[in-house]
């Protein structure tokens, strides 16, 4: 009787099995929270108070709205986002203290000048908990971040080994096509196996993309290395080098004049965000998104001094490919890259990824219950 050899396939299967069992709970929690976070903005928006805007002939200027906010003691106004349609309010960024990292958002109706402070809802608290679970497992960041990072590396190994194991020992179309479908008329064990095998195959490419990009948040050295490989720094949005000449008060233009000049250069319909001049940066910073663009999150940047002189213009489509990729790491990871369509696809992929530790564990438990050998 020939002794069975320990094949490479058996080795890959064992790696896939034991790594999956060892990291199953962590991967389940990370993927589950990722599934919820796929539609984070939509969930928050659904539970937030809706501010309706009815258009009229008279629209207040941004300068007057800024003064209204200052007079109402809401804090320091640092910027504003102007929507591309007239049916939405202006969104002002306000800080009670300029040392704050992030301020609060205040919605203002440009026709009535009514102020609506954006209040936190239970949905905001829930989504924050999901974010912390996804990134740090609700632990201290110094502990949770590397744990999630190691689990992500394991998940990448599981995805690659899973692709190898998906192929049958004898690669023939008759055997291969079984891996593309779920045999719903079989017993529950076979259905569970197909759910793990087939759905895992369909989601594996997106799982790899999410894992490769997700490691940028876990390990600084990995983020730096990936940036070096791409040839552009990741998560870095530096302003271009330019000299800002001092402007006398009689030469300074209003913010509304600056917006008109910016829209002439960025001459298309889209949401415009303005950061006002401050002590550190004495110039206007504009970001605009083209409504008709292929991606809803790519922006063009424009910088203007307080006299109305355009200092620099950065058009996304004119950037080198490696810089584009580096700037899109986050939307590639979250699925925002192509808007709602890609977010829905990522949602399904995350849902499948959440199920894989469960179906994989069930497959292992079923194999433990081996039938007794016949005499």
Helical coverage, percent range: 40-55%
How are the strands of the largest sheet arranged? 4-3-2-1-5-6-7-8
Number of strands: 8
Per the principal axes of the C-alpha atoms, what is the gross shape?
A: elongated
Compute the CA-based radius of gyration. Answer: 26 Å
Low-confidence stretches: none
What is the oligomer described by this structure? single chain
Mean pLDDT score, rounded?
91
Question: What about the largest sheet?
Answer: 8 strands, antiparallel
> Which range does the strand content fall in?
5-15%
Q: What do you see in this structure?
A:
With 375 residues, this protein is α+β, with helices and mostly antiparallel strands. Helices cover 49% and strands 13% of the residues. The mean pLDDT is 91.
